Amino acid sequence: MSKRILLIFMIVLTIAISVGCTKKEIESEIKEEKQELIITTSFSANSIPFFYMMENSLLGDDYNFNVEIHKTRDEATAKILKGNANIAMLSVQEAANMYNKELPVKLVNGTYGASFYLMTKDDSIKEFDDLVGETLWTSMKGGPVAFTLNQLLINNANVDSDKDIEYKFVNLSELTQMVLSDIKDINVFSLRDPFVTKIMMSRDDIKVIKDFDKEWEKTFGHRIPLSGVVMSNELLSQESFDSKYFNEKYNEAIKWVQDNPEEASVLGNKYLKGLSAKVLEKSISSMNLEIIDELNLENELNEYFDKWLSFNPQMIGNKLPDDNFYYKK
Q: Do 253 and 204 sit in the same domain of this protein?
């Protein structure tokens, strides 16, 4: 009798072990079938929606979504080329540059959210025309802040931006520190957030006189196209991947950030080391991140890139990107 009980026990144990192994194998296979999505994004407040997507598994159980941060376009390009990332969030001109250099990527969305400002401590400077004869301090010669100001001056003022204004170009961090320390007698300057917020929180004698995003909308009928998401052709060719679903969840994350700036700033502070939650919260409010309507995206960006061609063509790769730049499924 005891031998019979022992035999039954051994059979049950064998079945249990077999079922357990099969369950582990199935779980392992399911885990292996998850699609790997790695986005490289910039060190800025408009990256916070991606942190939210990652931490809350917003894309669902079918994806392993991870976020990495790059400091330069070259770093982002290297990650795409080496296959260390299959998605990148860049300025739209950087995205065009990447495509025009024949990297295998396409643009899947674009966003508004430019926080560029003209600032001064001089009460007599109120309009663009008041910049005549002034020394204007700004970042990166030929960069997006200088470009935006140039286009607004061309269309809104009796100012020759090349002859009537003297420019001083300093990197963002250095210029911010110079203003905070009140050295070099900087009277008027243009910067972007979060640097603007840092200054406004420390210097109550400095004021914003022009919000470039609002001025751009008055002038051209839409906000400044700021950034976009590109994806590798390899990822987009996979039947299991749905870029439309990605954009829906990205838009959901953007809305969460805009509706919950305090929580979003704490989340951003976790990944954007060196930017305080207080600064990020104010930056979130000012950038008003918003996805560009896909029906308007191509026309708005082509008009925007055309302006870059006359200002600094190297920024977009010296030509307009062709129709294949824009992903259409």
A: no
